[in-house]
Write a structure and sequence with these properties.
single chain; 4 helices; 24% strand; 3-stranded antiparallel sheet; 18% helix; alpha+beta
Length: 192
């Protein structure tokens, strides 16, 4: 049984985690396993509102339970924008040494590879990507970049890229999504 929604009660179908970094992480993790299993298509959320990927033209009707504001883009919007900008890439199956803490989604087009690293925990995780040489760029959607990501539709293209080496531990901030790019070959992702 559930309480019927009235004009003044918060609907049970709305989950405030959707507007959080965890919402983006859950969605990307779900997408990874569905795509690796061979799904041809998936449907997730509404476009606008408390069940969408952005708030839209009005503040939340339930600011105590769902504290979003007019025009706010939820972090999952950046995740979808990144996936759509690489939609011609093929999903490559990969395994994490500890998928309850960190996981990865690998997208590949010939030698061109994109890796989306996901830290599902509330503490920093260090990740090593085995089998790569050289340097690559990393963009992180995390607590430090959250404010920019939810207010800038072009955040994913405008955010600062960090140069990192795969031979070193890559620090992933708590509840973060990291976008890794370079002309690379596939390898496993290991939690250190």
């Amino acid at each position: 049984n559930y309480e019927a929604h009235t004009e003044n009660t918060f609907p049970y179908q709305i989950d405030s985690r959707l507007m959080s970094l965890f919402g983006a992480l859950w969605t990307l993790g779900s997408f990874k396993y569905l795509a690796e299993a061979g799904s041809d298509g998936v449907t997730y959320f509404e476009t606008v509102g408390e069940r969408g990927i952005m708030q839209g033209d009005f503040d939340s009707r339930w600011p105590d339970e769902f504290p979003s504001v007019k025009k706010m883009l939820f972090p999952v919007c950046s995740a979808f924008k990144y996936l759509l900008s690489n939609k011609h890439f093929k999903v490559i199956k990969c395994e994490s040494s500890n998928p309850l803490k960190i996981d990865a989604l690998i997208l590949s087009e010939r030698e061109n590879t994109r890796i989306i690293l996901m830290n599902f925990t509330d503490v920093q995780q260090n990740v090593c990507i085995k089998g790569y040489s050289g340097t690559f760029t990393l963009k992180q959607l995390n607590d430090e970049t959250f404010k920019d990501a939810v207010s800038d539709a072009n955040w994913i293209g405008n955010t600062k890229k960090i140069q990192v080496s795969p031979t070193e531990n890559i620090p992933l901030r708590p509840f973060s999504v990291s976008f890794v790019e370079k002309l690379l070959n596939f390898s496993d992702i290991y939690n250190m």
